[in-house]
Design a protein that fits this description.
GO terms for molecular function: transmembrane transporter activity. By secondary structure, this protein is mainly α. Helices cover about 80% and strands about 0% of the residues. It folds into two domains: about 190 residues, Up-down Bundle (Growth Hormone, Chain: A), CATH 1.20.1250; about 190 residues, MFS general substrate transporter like domains (Growth Hormone, Chain: A, Up-down Bundle). The longest helix is centred in the C-terminal third of the chain and has 37 residues.
């Protein structure tokens, strides 16, 4: 149920909401961290054909892509806060299904659970937009960055939850970890209940432009392309990197540490990304992120040592942060208040649809073309996104 939000001086309300959503992100963001950490391991235990072992992780991404539009419809009807409460309950249900699949050794049930957890993730992914709803234009990039800082905490909470719970159910290894995931979703309810979101403008006949018209804006085209390139390539390379490291003779521990550095690099820059955007502009920071993503591929092509893999993953993480936060800030300039729900949903559907495709295809390309092929594939999408970001700067804005 929507509530009236009093007008506060400056960005006090926006800062309060951003802090609330950062806390919710810390718990909700642990949802994918746990599945990414364990999905392939558990899948390998439950399915005979190891080619399908990573399907549960890919279904998480597919769930996010499939859930963004229904999640937007729920929030448009019931409001942000009520939508996030429903999302957290969905997350707890998905984690329970996944735990049940592990306990009963049913691969299909485990996959359903990770898909439902992806539906929860579709609510969590919109936290960054919710933080911008009550912010001034100057504070929007910082509000988005504050929420993303919660992802840094999630990168610690998720793996630590796995570490402390993995052996609690010896008869069904890791089942307790998924139950812990459900507990984190329930704990998030207490945090999102503190959100003081404005009434979301309904999209009535004549109350907003058609979605097709909005999506034809140069800035929307550039921002969505930059988002899906930054996020899609990050997922694509990150998924392949641990398998490539092991194939090159490095240890599983080396690979795990590389992913840890990567996650820290993804969210750590959020402490200052908003300030960089305020100083240099959204387009320049987005472009810098895309360039860093390409530089990660260059490092990946120049050597196969542990140091090369780790440096590539660190650059990939920073590139994702700059590219994704910058592009998210850009897309907030593409819609009017009454249009924001459908535009945000369209943006996330396109972005996470590409992430799901990248997740499904990464292992196959690595198997057939090797680590070099994975890295060479980075350059064309980055070049396209950079060209579009530069192009939109010279176009006449569609809204004032």
């Amino acid at each position: 149920m929507n509530q009236h939000v009093p007008v506060l001086d400056g960005d006090r309300l926006a800062k309060r909401n951003a802090l609330v959503l950062a806390g919710a992100q810390a718990l909700g963001g642990a949802n994918p961290a746990i599945i990414v950490s364990l999905g392939g391991i558990v899948g390998a235990q439950l399915v005979a054909d190891q080619a399908f072992a990573t399907v549960p992780v890919s279904l998480l991404q597919l769930g996010i892509a499939c859930g963004v539009i229904p999640a937007a419809m729920v929030m448009r009807r019931l409001g942000r806060r009520s939508g996030y409460l429903i999302g957290a309950l969905i997350g707890a249900a998905g984690a329970s299904l996944a735990a049940g699949g592990v306990s009963l050794r049913l691969f299909w049930l485990f996959c359903i659970g990770t898909f439902v957890c992806g539906l929860y993730g579709s609510f969590v992914q919109s936290y960054r937009f919710a933080a911008a709803d009550t912010a001034s234009d100057d504070f929007k990039p910082r509000a988005i960055s504050w929420v993303m800082i919660g992802g840094l905490a999630a990168g610690v909470i998720g793996p630590q939850s796995v570490y402390w719970t993995r052996d609690l159910t010896p008869a069904a290894p890791f089942a307790a970890s998924f139950l812990a995931q459900g507990v984190l979703a329930l704990l998030a309810i207490g945090i999102v209940a503190q959100l003081r979101a404005p009434r979301m403008a309904a999209v009535r006949s004549g109350g907003g432009r058609p979605l097709g018209e909005i999506m034809r804006q140069p800035k929307f085209i550039a921002s969505v392309t930059a988002s899906l390139v930054a996020y899609g390539l990050m997922s694509f390379v990150m998924t392949a990197a641990p398998m490539a490291m092991v194939a090159c003779g490095h240890t599983v521990g080396d690979a795990a540490l590389g992913i840890q550095w990567h996650v820290l690099s993804m969210f750590g820059p959020s402490f200052f990304t908003g300030r960089l955007i305020a100083r240099f502009g959204k387009g320049k920071v987005t472009a810098a992120g895309l360039i860093l993503t390409a530089l990660a591929a260059v490092v990946g092509l120049t050597g196969l040592s542990v140091g090369h893999f780790w440096l590539a993953l660190i650059l990939l993480g920073i590139g994702w942060n700059f590219g994704f936060i910058g592009a998210t800030a850009l897309v907030t300039e593409c819609y009017r208040p009454e249009e924001r729900v459908k535009v945000q949903a369209a943006n996330d559907f396109l972005v996470f649809g590409s992430v799901a495709i990248a997740s499904f295809s990464s292992g196959g390309l690595l198997s057939h073309g090797g680590w070099d092929a994975v890295n060479w594939l980075v350059f064309p999408p980055v070049a396209l996104a950079l060209a579009l970001v530069a192009w939109q700067r010279f176009q006449r804005p569609a809204i004032g």
